[in-house]
Design goal:
Layout lengths: L4 H4 L10 H15 L11 H8 L3 H14 L2 E4 L5 E4 L4 H12 L6 H19 L5 H14 L9 H7 L1 H10 L3 H17 E3 L5 H23 L3 H21 L2 E3 L6 H22 L1
Antiparallel strand pairs: 1-2, 3-4
């Protein structure tokens, strides 16, 4: 598609978009038109230059913009160039934080939505759960049981319980519902703190209740009883809200820094690797 250079000149007073932003939008349209999937390569820079009649610097700025958005990965050297990638949940979470930065969002607001969505997600996933999903759910329950031996970090154990819900999300056929619930789970996992530092007895009480519900939900799911799963998950969400309220749960500020998110992710991976090694 050719662009009129006169129209493409940015004019601050009129608020016209930058040329590179317009090219970035056209590359998005190209990805859609060609039905490119994660892993597929974009045309070479020289081809994009010719296609959009712009300079190399404009193409590179457009690709950089798409890379920041998480849609494209750009590599250098022989065989390099732009490649379509799937936007990771962590990146979407960071963008969501930017949107919510100046908005007052309470933990109660998040649970109000979660209580509506999570039961429907779990029920819709029941027919699609595989043996691998059931094994992962069973393993998660065992890892998060507060009565298990050698519980080193009860708070980390409570955060790990969110993975139980992510497993159901992975089996949900509704991609938008899955995304919505995964985003909520990520916010709860990353941003929830407790004023009273979550005393051990309260942690155990919360964990025991979660484990009880998770076992019941798993059993109903094995029986392919979607209505029972929906009802149990609804009760579970209301119970979680009561527990979080009792322990003075709240959101930690307005955002979590990228470095802190990376640190927590590394810590979670290290704990999981340690458990796998101990079980081997």
């Amino acid at each position: 598609m050719d662009f009129d250079s006169q129209d493409m000149q940015p004019t601050a007073a009129m608020g016209q978009p930058k040329r590179s932003d317009l090219v970035a939008e056209e590359i998005k349209r190209l990805i859609t038109a060609k039905n490119l999937l994660p892993g597929d390569k974009l045309p070479r820079e020289s081809e994009l230059q010719s296609m959009f009649a712009v300079s190399k610097s404009t193409i590179r700025e457009a690709l950089k913009s798409l890379e920041v958005q998480g849609l494209v990965k750009v590599s250098t050297g022989p065989g390099g160039g732009g490649r379509v990638v799937e936007v990771p949940l962590d990146r979407t979470f960071q963008l969501m934080q930017n949107y919510l930065f100046f908005k007052e969002v309470r933990i109660e607001d998040i649970y109000q939505v979660r209580k509506l969505l999570e039961p429907e997600l779990a029920a819709s996933a029941v027919a699609h759960l595989t043996d691998a999903h059931f094994a992962a759910l069973e393993h998660n329950i065992q890892c998060c049981d507060p009565m298990a031996e050698h519980v080193e970090d009860p708070l980390a154990q409570r955060q790990e319980e969110m993975n139980f819900h992510d497993i159901f999300a992975a089996a949900c056929p509704n991609s938008f519902l899955r995304f919505s619930c995964e985003m909520i789970n990520q916010m709860i996992r990353q941003l929830t703190v407790f004023d009273n530092e979550m005393p051990l007895k309260e942690q155990e009480k919360f964990g025991v209740s979660n484990t009880k519900f998770h076992k019941q939900i798993l059993q109903a799911a094995r029986e392919r009883d979607a209505d029972r799963v929906r009802a149990l998950m609804s009760d579970h969400m209301h119970d979680c809200m009561r527990s979080v309220t009792r322990m003075h749960g709240k959101l930690k500020g307005r955002l979590i820094l990228d470095s802190e998110m990376s640190r927590r992710k590394m810590a979670r991976n290290a704990r999981r690797a340690g458990r796998r090694k101990a079980e081997a």
